[in-house]
Amino acid sequence: MSAEKLIKNLEKLLQLHQNLHKITLQKTESLKSENIEELKELLKKEQMFVQAIKQLEAERVQVTSEFLGHAENLTLSACIEKSSGHEKQSLERIANEFTEVMEKLTAANQLNRDLTQQALQFVSISLDMLMPQESLTNYNRPDGNKTQSDIKRRSLFDSQA
Q1: Which residue from 21, 45, 43, 46 is spatially nearest to 101, judged by alpha carbons?
Q2: Tens digit of pLDDT for each residue in 34-53?
Q3: For 69-84, where are the alpha helices, taking DSSP H only?
Q4: Which of 74, 91, 93, 128 is in Cβ range 3.0-4.6 Å of 64 for a Cys bridge?
Q5: How far is CA 52 from CA 12, 59, 65, 84, in A?
Q6: Residue predicted with more confidence, 109 or 160
Q7: What is the pLDDT confidence band of residue 61, given thresholds at 50, 70 and 90?
Q8: Coiled-coil regions in this chain (predicted)?
């Protein structure tokens, strides 16, 4: 069996991953500029690409199984070993491009994760500064009940002062 069908499928998968990388880079810029609306739209686009990748990956597994003639070890390396000539060169090129795109995606996703974590830490610190926890007191009510004012967090700015 020829590897042409497999090569076409892998090229489509590669293109989807490259587009996913572009969206990831756009997400980085949205996180830096704190543009939440753009980030929401990018997350929707990203989800669409992930679904398309899942579907193409299922097709790839089937096509690879047909090409190799068995259902185990359905890797690109196994396909490269079985192929020859122009098909082998095409598969090797695709494997190299996949490696490159995956490394870029991993790095960009790590950066986005770090930016998101820093933003969450900033929000948490800001909330703690505006609404600090009431310090522990030595006195508790004898009946053990807490009043409404005991339950509320104290604000840094006391409006009754």
Answers
A1: 21
A2: 888 999 999 999 999 999 99
A3: 76-82
A4: 74
A5: 10, 11, 20, 29
A6: 109
A7: very high
A8: 3-59
* Tokens describing residue 120: 């969450």
Taking only Cα atoms into account, the Rg of the chain, rounded to an integer number of angstroms, comes to 27
Amino acid at 20: L
Query: Which residue type, as a one-letter code, is found at position 135?
Result: S
User: Average pLDDT of 114-123?
Assistant: 87
Mean per-residue pLDDT for 144-153? Answer: 57
Residue ranges in 34-153 assigned as alpha helix (H):
36-68, 76-82, 85-130, 148-151
Rounded CA separation 57/144 (Å): 61
Predicted confidence at residue 3, as pLDDT, reads 85
What distance in Å separates the CA atoms of residue 76 and residue 96, rounded to the nearest whole number? 11
User: What amino acid is encoded at 57 in this protein?
Assistant: E
CA distances from 5 to 2, 13, 77, 85, 97 (A): 7, 12, 16, 16, 18
d(CA 68, CA 61): 10
The topology under which CATH files domain 4-130 is: Methane Monooxygenase Hydroxylase; Chain G, domain 1 (1.20.58)
Please say whether the beta carbons of 13 and 53 come within 8 A: yes
Residue type, 45: K
Per-residue pLDDT at 161 exceeds 60? no
